[in-house]
Design brief:
33% helix; 19% strand; 275 residues; eight-stranded mixed β-sheet; Rossmann fold
């Protein structure tokens, strides 16, 4: 095996990906003076991340678009004609990928996005500016998608405080809001895809997914930095037998499908398949 030349530093960052350019040097932002060390690291990482460069070269609004592409390439959750809701849609990378894959404008597909931040207009997409935790906004999103949808996606994450346990709890709370909305609007066999920071508090949310979907998986696309606690949870085969958070399964609006879904599963509880 060839030996690494003496005196040369590592060519890879914490994620295991190369942070070197063609000349063998790590690219540095032009203006670093006055920035916090954490900001300097983030800027350097962004400048040298191949997925950032790929997203930019392909015209995507964010690197996150590649994450959704990679997830869909493997699990084929997006299909022509679907009605999809994207929670936390800014700056619109997921909307771009979804619009293309559901054939928006070329059929009966429908795509609705909501975010606290402004999102640039995208042809055929209904974009709402508002807080997804506000019941009034929830009703607007539901009306925009036509009451029911084939998929609910959420790339929402709470603004970080630097205290990892607090950040985990806040993002998990958003995950729970997104799941509750999904259970309310999904049609039978629909899917739910959401950002999920692992840390323990998300266990009750995952259990609720297991009770309402046939299969639940943790997914870590290649475009998600390996050193990050970020992962995604993908729940497919919605049947709604488990009801909503804090609710009574007997009051579940999808009870018409509960018996059929239970009989299709070995234990009636759904499957949990981390990867």
């Amino acid at each position: 095996m060839p030996r690494k030349p003496a005196g040369r530093s590592s060519t890879r960052g914490p994620s295991g990906r190369s942070y070197r350019n063609d000349t063998g040097l790590t690219r540095q932002p032009k203006k670093m003076r006055g920035r916090k060390p954490s900001s300097q690291r983030w800027l350097t990482r962004q400048l040298n991340d191949p997925f950032v460069a790929q997203a930019k070269s392909r015209g995507f609004r964010s690197r996150a678009a590649l994450k959704l592409e990679q997830i869909d390439d493997r699990y084929e959750i997006l299909k022509p004609g679907m009605a999809i809701v994207d929670l936390g849609c800014a700056p619109g990378g997921w909307l771009q990928v979804t619009a293309d894959r559901i054939g928006l404008g070329r059929g009966a597909g429908k795509l609705v996005g909501i975010d606290l931040l402004e999102t640039d207009v995208l042809d055929g997409v209904d974009i709402i500016v508002g807080d997804m935790t506000d019941p009034v906004m929830i009703e607007r999103v539901r009306a925009a998608v036509g009451g029911r949808g084939n998929g609910v996606m959420s790339d929402m994450a709470a603004a970080t405080t630097g205290h990892r346990p607090t950040d985990h709890l806040r993002t998990t709370a958003l995950l729970e809001v997104a799941l509750d909305f999904a259970i309310e609007v999904l049609v039978e066999d629909g899917f739910f895809l959401a950002k999920c920071f692992r840390g323990g508090a998300e266990r009750s949310v995952l259990e609720l997914m297991q009770a309402n979907f046939q299969t639940v998986r943790h997914v870590k696309p290649a475009a998600s930095r390996q050193e990050s606690v970020e992962s995604y949870v993908l729940a497919t085969g919605f049947h709604g037998a488990g009801g909503r958070a804090g609710g009574n399964p007997d009051d579940n609006p999808h009870d018409d499908h509960a018996d059929a879904a239970d009989s299709a599963l070995p234990d009636g509880s759904g499957g949990y398949s981390p990867i």
